[in-house]
Amino acid sequence: MLFRLEDVYKSYGAHEVLAGVTFQINPGERTGLVGRNGAGKTTIFRLLTRIEEADRGEVIFVRGLRLGVLDQQPQLNTALSVREEAISVFADLISMEDEIERLEHEMADHESESLEEVMHDYADLRHRYEMSGGFTFRARAETVIAGLGFRQEEFSRPTDQLSGGQKARLQLAKLLLAEPDLLLLDEPTNHLDVDAVEWLENFLAEYKKAFVIISHDRFLLDRTAMKIVEIDGGRANVYTGNYTSYVKQREERRLQQAREYEQQQELISRTEEFIRRNLAGQKTKQAKSRRNMLERMERVEAVREEKTGNFNFQNVARAGDNVLAVGDLSIGYTKALASGLRFLIRRGERLGIIGSNGSGKTTFLKTINGDLDPVAGGFTWGANVEIEYFDQELSGLNYSVTAIEEMASVAPRATPGELRSYLARFLFTGDDVYKPVAALSGGEKSRLALAKLIHSRANVLILDEPTNHLDIPSREALEAALATYPGTIITVSHDRYFLDKIATEILHFDKGAATYHTGSYSDYHEERAKFEAAREEQKTKKRTSTNVARPRKAQPKQRRRPVEEIEKDIAAFEAESQALAERLSNPAPEWGAEQYAEISNRQSEISAELEKLYGEWESVAHETIS
Fold first, then answer.
1. CA–CA separation, 189 and 169 (whole Å)
2. Are residues 115 and 253 in the same domain?
3. What is the DSSP letter of 68?
4. Number of structural domains in the chain
5. Which of 128, 261, 451, 618 has the most beta carbons within 10 angstroms of its beta carbon?
6. In what order do the strands lie in the sheet with 56-61?
7. 357 CB burial (10 A radius; 0-12, 13-18, 19+)
8. How far apart are the first and last CA of the chain?
């Protein structure tokens, strides 16, 4: 094992968060840690990082465990650039390079009295440098920071000029490059756009070491996790498989538990009746025996009813058949972010909008909602359309009133009892309804805004990131309600699982344009993958037909070489480098400084060539997915 929590309890004042949590993580396990907001997921991370200690129970670590934690407050060296900061995790390799250079200078001094000893030290060090990835770590660093959304021109930017989101992405890059024995990742997709999230998914899916990830991104958990640990009611329930498998197994367990509970309750009821009738009669011995049996019986717990919020929509007025017609629309501020948008949304359709940060998604919503003027072109709403807008800043909330007063603003005829009952469906119970809106958590504010939205009975919903701040059970409840909503939905979301449940069409903003696709998010993703594969096949055929001689080294060319060709050259250079390293490890007795210098120079040449090849490989790979 890497670590084990054994019957761990943790309370904060009178509030018990963990009540006997037991589970362990083994080498190489890719684990998703799930549960409602406040269930104790972050508490477990704080115990594992020794920020806090358990009240009872044990937190056991394997000796020498290298733990990597995604810090919510990144600590970066402001004197370094993005590239330099990423490479700083390879301090040992950089130190080796300095020592190799020193030994090379010392070997060049033929008057050295300890030349043979220096040569052996040099050979050993070069071999360790090679085996530790010394010829590839810079290319690896650039691949990771590019994958997490940094452009080439940003590699040299000083870290003190980065935004908060960029600093978080750079810290994540350093953590992935460091490859500790165990990664603890708390919402790692925050600050990542769709492309970067997909890159991270691919990276984690191939990651050879262990990680535990807290995430509301169910697509990410589906593609990366091999084990799910659910924290519920202060206990840990362990499931094998990804998130979808966990959902199925959880429902099966709940049904089985409900059956066992019902059967046990029937047995207890019959036994108690027998005891009552016979305790003082002829069968008193049997009655006492059964009473003892009941006292020793291990009771099956009743299935916990999950509070998820009852997001049930009211009946809405019928809109016209054509809800929104968009014609040659350009959107933006001083200049266009995206142009040439042309499509038609019909009654009952659900449009999911995706794209990278800054591509124009929210700008499009603000434009069709009338908050921004089009740069060019236009759009037309259909007949009998009634619109309600949910913006991710939640600007429609009045922060100077209480939750129940805010609800009363859209339901002025409702009694206080009716308002409390309605808000209870959105998990506002007891004195929660009297909390000031300004004091609500992000999730509570989202639920209050959704409560107002659903009460409006609009037949068109424009939703900008509606699942932000909602935990997974609340997202599932919202999905279930939207699935039965009779109106039309236009929603921006980075939650691909949510889009897969809701969307019937996908609008993808990318590079100043937007493409329209029919079907769910999975349909769109499959369509895109087939398109990219076909495009790459056409490129390969075109290159082959030109019959241009393939270069042996990575020289600047006007054309893009196939990935397979570049990988062939990389393999050849790496094989040669390995052979040279083996020669250095077993030098001939007659070798002098010249032989070591010759091999060293060739290794330096190979290192330079590999840097070029990895750069070329990354460029071609990026072109393929862009």
1. 9
2. no
3. E
4. 3
5. 451
6. 15-25, 3-12, 56-61
7. middle
8. 40
Q: Which tens digits make up the pLDDT trace of 598-620?
A: 776 687 778 778 778 877 776 76
- Whether 527 shows a pLDDT value over 90: the answer reads no
pLDDT at 107 over 90: no
429 and 485 share a domain? yes
Q: CA 132 to CA 109: how far, in whole Å? A: 28
Does residue 523 lie in a domain region? yes
- Cα–Cα distance for residue pair 503/601, rounded to 1 Å: 58
Closest CA to 442 of 421, 471, 485, 400: 471
Among residues 458, 493, 528, the one where a domain terminates is 528
Residues sharing a CB contact under 8 Å with residue 405, sequence separation 6 or more, in sequence order: 398
Contact, 554 vs 612, CB < 8 A? yes
302-328 pLDDT tens trace: 887 766 667 677 788 899 999 999 999
Say if residue 524 is in the same domain as residue 389.
Answer: yes
Pairing between β-strand 376-381 and β-strand 322-332 as defined by DSSP bridges: antiparallel
For residue 327, the one-letter residue type is: G
122 touches 107 (CB < 8 A): yes
CATH number for the domain that contains residue 499: 3.40.50.300
Structural domain harbouring 610: 80-149+553-626
- Contacts with 613 (C-beta within 8 Å, 6 or more apart), sequence order: 554, 566, 569, 570, 573
pLDDT at 544 over 70: no
Q: Do the strands 513-518 and 350-355 form a parallel or antiparallel pair, or are they unpaired?
A: unpaired
* 138 and 199 both lie in a single domain: no
Place of tokens 């691919």: 202
Contact 66, 182 (CB under 8 A): yes
E strands, 347-473, where? 350-355, 376-381, 387-390, 460-464
**Do residues 278 and 186 share a domain?**
yes
Beta bridge partners of 235: 232
- Which of 495, 528, 561 marks a domain boundary? 528
Range 519-526 contact pairs with CB under 8 angstroms and sequence separation of 24 or more: 521/352, 521/354, 521/496, 525/496
Which residue reads 């209870």 in tokens? 424
pLDDT greater than 70 at residue 558: no
329-374 per-position pLDDT tens digit:
999 998 899 999 999 999 999 999 998 888 899 999 999 999 999 9
Domain assignment present for residue 287? The answer is: yes
Whether residue 405 is found in the same domain as residue 462: yes
**Is residue 545 assigned to a domain?**
no
Full-model pTM: 0.76
Instruction: Measure the CA–CA gap between 36 and 475, rounded to whole angstroms.
Output: 11
3-state SS assignment for residue 566: helix
Same domain membership, residue 342 and residue 261: no
Q: Are residues 563 and 435 in the same domain?
A: no
Average per-residue pLDDT for the chain: 87
Residue 165 located in a structural domain: no
Q: Which of 475, 532, 528 is nearest to 506 (CA)?
A: 528
The residue-averaged pLDDT of 247-253 equals 93
